[in-house]
Amino acid sequence: MEKIKRTKVVDVLQRTDFGAVVNVKGWVRTHRSSKSVDFIALNDGSTIKNVQVVVDPSKFDESMLKQITTGSCINVNGELVESQGAGQTVELQCREIEIYGLCASDYPMQKKGQSFEYMRQYAHLRLRTNTFGAVMRIRHNMAIAIHKYFHDHGFFYFHTPLITASDCEGAGQMFQVTTKNLYDLKKNDEGKITYDDDFFGKQTSLTVSGQLEGELGATALGAIYTFGPTFRAENSNTPRHLAEFWMIEPEVAFIDLNDLMDLEEDFIKYCVQWALDNCKDDLEFLNKMIDKTLIERLKSVVSGSFVRLEYTEGINILEEAVKNGHKFEFPVSWGMDLASEHERYLVEEHFKKPVIMTGYPKAIKAFYMKINEDGKTVQGTDVLFPQIGEIIGGSVREENYDKLIGEINERNIPMKDMWWYLDTRKYGSCPHGGFGLGFERLILFVTGMQNIRDVIPFPRTPKNAEF
Amino acid sequence: MEKIKRTKVVDVLQRTDFGAVVNVKGWVRTHRSSKSVDFIALNDGSTIKNVQVVVDPSKFDESMLKQITTGSCINVNGELVESQGAGQTVELQCREIEIYGLCASDYPMQKKGQSFEYMRQYAHLRLRTNTFGAVMRIRHNMAIAIHKYFHDHGFFYFHTPLITASDCEGAGQMFQVTTKNLYDLKKNDEGKITYDDDFFGKQTSLTVSGQLEGELGATALGAIYTFGPTFRAENSNTPRHLAEFWMIEPEVAFIDLNDLMDLEEDFIKYCVQWALDNCKDDLEFLNKMIDKTLIERLKSVVSGSFVRLEYTEGINILEEAVKNGHKFEFPVSWGMDLASEHERYLVEEHFKKPVIMTGYPKAIKAFYMKINEDGKTVQGTDVLFPQIGEIIGGSVREENYDKLIGEINERNIPMKDMWWYLDTRKYGSCPHGGFGLGFERLILFVTGMQNIRDVIPFPRTPKNAEF
């Protein structure tokens, strides 16, 4: 076979130099045969679109052609010609075919229209389907948008540790990390397991958040962001929970509440606009197959301003709604933590646009949030989105050492391993704040997918660590 | 105090609109006082350079000024003036000062010239020093370069799982991840601990490499890269080992040995060139303070071609060196795994440039490497660098199902949890390859730092999981 430099399918489909002989390599999506002509739809993952390879069966070995079934991997030299068919502008008139790998007849992705549940069992092969290819390319693009946004705005990417000896925030149940021999656990006189022989010489877990370490970065480098895996050992079998997920946590020195809300809004709009600008083909596919209002919803997020709403005002609106006959599952009253139904009512029914809520009651938020002058609310800022509910949770941080200690004591938070966090308030403390974005929540929003297990390549959930 | 929008120090130092009143916020690096004038060197992490704030002490409260010691955080409005001093072009004539946070007198980063060992104990505060600020900004830049390189070349960022139930590659000792109650470990009749009550229903660990899952991505999306944390539970207390480190693992379908070596060389040169182009101030500082040959070494890497060397030829060169009286600690013979001294001899003494070595004996390389026609060597490709030794390890992968199974059986690798990996060779197998780059190894090379614990914010090593 003549050696020609490979052209990716995404690039072949842009070419107009008809008559040129090009090389493509990829996996067969479909192979339709008739007496006079074979059509092979070839995909190489570079785009959701296939290139059509038109084969004159009289010029090739019949038994060879017959082997090229869905899922096979082939290498094709062909002449670029204008396409006669609808929905494509170019196709390849096949000159040579080499088979790289045939596909066993029990290929699980053979049939179209399998359920997402079915496909999760074959997470390694579902990546070759239209839907998951689209989701993964969009996921990539969202990661790139995030890095580009922060880099362009002078934030430094900061790697906070995954293995941690602190569990201060109490954000969730943790996975223990150990090299101890479980068959020979050393205990002290009181029968407590000792950890001096464990790898780190103490009990360690997987982090639930990089924020506290992120604050160390921000109070030195000015503005940082994390983008890494985070873990929760909660036994939640829901379409919204993963035991291992990716989180983005920017943290900025010298920021106040308004600047923080500006940052949150600007950042998330940038990401959504990036998808609209850079993932057109994939979004159109998902809009057609998964969620017919997807593109419209993305456009509506970037086009208008977000509502900025005090918690107290939000409660008033919800109470008004109840008075007017709206039924919520959970009762509404000042001091409560909003449930998803409340958030969605405000966003989808009342304002019909994203909401940044602030001024939450101190008691329902974390210890590190800056306390307002009223002494009972804090400068937390949650961004509430249609469909998703809370997509961002952030706050200005309490920079006053004494107030922070007061909260820690009031909540009985064990601070023995947290001396380094308090040091930031002891040595040149500064106003600062930041937020956290669950990456998969963003991907759910941008793809219109319904289950978080379908927007990460290999989901980790209770009883599932396959692949 | 008048509210003026903050300008970052990195931007202030570029401004030439003398007479303008600007606002800067940051941490005091030094404060020198005399009767007639105070000089405050202020840094906000945006650059290694400080902005000099010139204070007329007669215009400010003396006791307030006195409190502003090294490490304090302040907010300054000042007039931009041309600097009289050497080494800076602008300075600020102070108009107003606000103290955000004073610095307790036991501030551990007070004195200059502390050892790196000392500073590691205060990893949360060392970030505020010149050296660690420079290292962290370069680290950020290298991450951005990596994402930009792969994005521009059509690779998709692919998140492989951290928690895994497979330990197939055997690349190193693993950390166990569990939610089991260690005080009440369930065992079966044979006394073996059972894992059906563990979070994932089986025994799980932290990954040592994302490569095998990366191959699943590449054989669907065409070209992917990972960039995430990786773990080794080896009890290695050396300047080169971390228990938790970041790794970049690109994987590409339809690549052959030469393309792979081209990719490795092009990629690493791009990263080094990015540092030279984007981290000038930080590199100049490190070149002056840490390693006087740093910039010269970086330039030499990007300027010439890497040597491409067969393993067998490399052994010949080493044997020749031994004959000519060169002393190695470890003896040289065909079949051995090269030690660092051998790699560095080839790179630093013999060729005086980076080397890509290939054609390694099968027995010293991993099971998945493509076997050459000689049946005894494989298409591994290690990139060997001055100072560092192996900076990249890669290979073309064996795509033939039967050959792969042969290697697995020959090495007695437990494949029970690896059915999904074999599926890539069963359903449309394709030629492919990739490599792994330890991120911290790259940062060591680009910064000239000597200890890997000093190029990651919070190192994880035996007996150390602080912060």
Summarize the structure in words.
The longest helix of chain A is centred in the first third of the chain and has 23 residues, at about 130-150. In chain A, strand 4 (about 75-80) and strand 5 (about 90-100) form a beta hairpin. In chain A, helix 5 packs across helix 8. The model of chain A has no long low-confidence stretch (mean pLDDT about 95). Chain A is built from 14 helices and 16 strands. Chain A has an eight-stranded mixed sheet, sandwiched between helices. A five-stranded mixed β-barrel of chain A has the order 1-2-3-5-4. Chain A has a three-stranded antiparallel sheet with strand order 7-9-8, with no helix packed on it. The first copy, chain A, is an alpha+beta fold. Chain A has two domains: about 10-100, OB fold (Dihydrolipoamide Acetyltransferase, E2P), CATH 2.40.50; about 125-175 and about 210-455, BirA Bifunctional Protein, domain 2 (2-Layer Sandwich). Chains A and B meet through strand 1, helix 4, helix 5, strand 6 and strand 7 of A and strand 1, helix 4, helix 5, strand 6 and strand 7 of B. Chains A, B: Pfam families: tRNA-synt_2 (PF00152), tRNA_anti-codon (PF01336). Chains A, B: It comes from Xylanibacter rarus. Chains A, B: Keywords: Aminoacyl-tRNA synthetase, ATP-binding, Cytoplasm, Ligase, Nucleotide-binding, Protein biosynthesis. Chains A, B: One of its GO terms (biological process) is asparaginyl-tRNA aminoacylation. Chains A, B: It is an enzyme of class 6 (ligase).
